[in-house]
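W.,

You were right to be curious about this one. When I first looked at the sequence I had no strong expectations either way, so I just let the prediction run and decided to look at it fresh. Below is the sequence, 99 residues in total, followed by the output.
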Amino acid sequence: MESLREAIAVKGIPVIATSSTCTFALRDEYPEVLDVDNAGLREHIELATRWLWRKLDAGKTLPLNPLPLKVVYHTPCHMEKMGWTLTRLNCCGKFRGLN
């Protein structure tokens, strides 16, 4: 947690993870299981799609060509537990042509 604390508190770098399980562990399980304090860090640790969605929701755009694809999606259990299910679904909706 010390390296995360330095990145977040000292350098102002957010911690962005691609795995919902890792994100959940860092945010919610480490304090209890490892008896470490993540006060002031938790809100700066987030899933890549949540980070991307916040950027898109703030008006940023994705300079991508349309993706004429039909996809099926399953929400990871840890993402659902964190309440971030709609984040990824909304993010997918920003890709033109994705159905």
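Here's what jumped out at me. The longest strand covers residues 15-17. And, maybe more interesting for your project: The chain is about 45% helix and 5% strand.

Coffee later to discuss?

I.
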